[in-house]
Amino acid sequence: MCCNRAILLAVALLPTAVPAQESYKVEALKEGPPAALSGAIKEGLDTQGYRVVNDQGKTYAEFWLRKAVPATGRPAGPQGAVLFPVLTEGELLGALRYAEDGHDYRDQTIARGVYTLRYGLQPVNGDHLGVSTYRDYALLVPASKDTATENLTQKRLEEQSAESAGTNHPAILMLLAAPEGSKAGPSMVHDEALDAWGAVVPLSLVTKGESSPVPLLIQLILVGIAMN
Is this prediction's pTM over 0.85? Predict the structure, then answer.
């Protein structure tokens, strides 16, 4: 009896097997922007995009960035809770295609398909307390609804983005600054605290007085949801 108890105790103290966590990587995609985008939107995007795949090589999403994003100045540090004050709310950042149903940062289901990405800011109200330290987001808008490169008003952006999720809340992907020391080339980083995966890629900014685009490294959170 004593031996049996000792064996049971020893087994109970053995470490429990934990399922391996899925990982992701980003790679260059030579394929041009999707045909589902309007001509004006496609014209404004880079011909080379990025593909995000899991550790089994399965595609999760593909995205293309705008050739030149208008900016109010050169990249600078954050202003309060805004990481990218040189960007304008409602402006086009790029486009994204989900290979299968995806999820936004609020864990809303986003149907497979093509969406534009536009810059937006989290409203300053009690409904969003604790969701994120910073207010910067990329909002998903159905490609069929977004056909011009001009900036969208906040109201129109939020209404059309909500259609991406089929809810009354915009579909959002969090935007963060690239980790310190990040290289200019595309990379995928895992934030253990947020349990999120972000693609670090260069956004080309066009500012008055600059003869050529100025790169701004951003981190687009593609996998992960708000903890609150």
Answer: yes
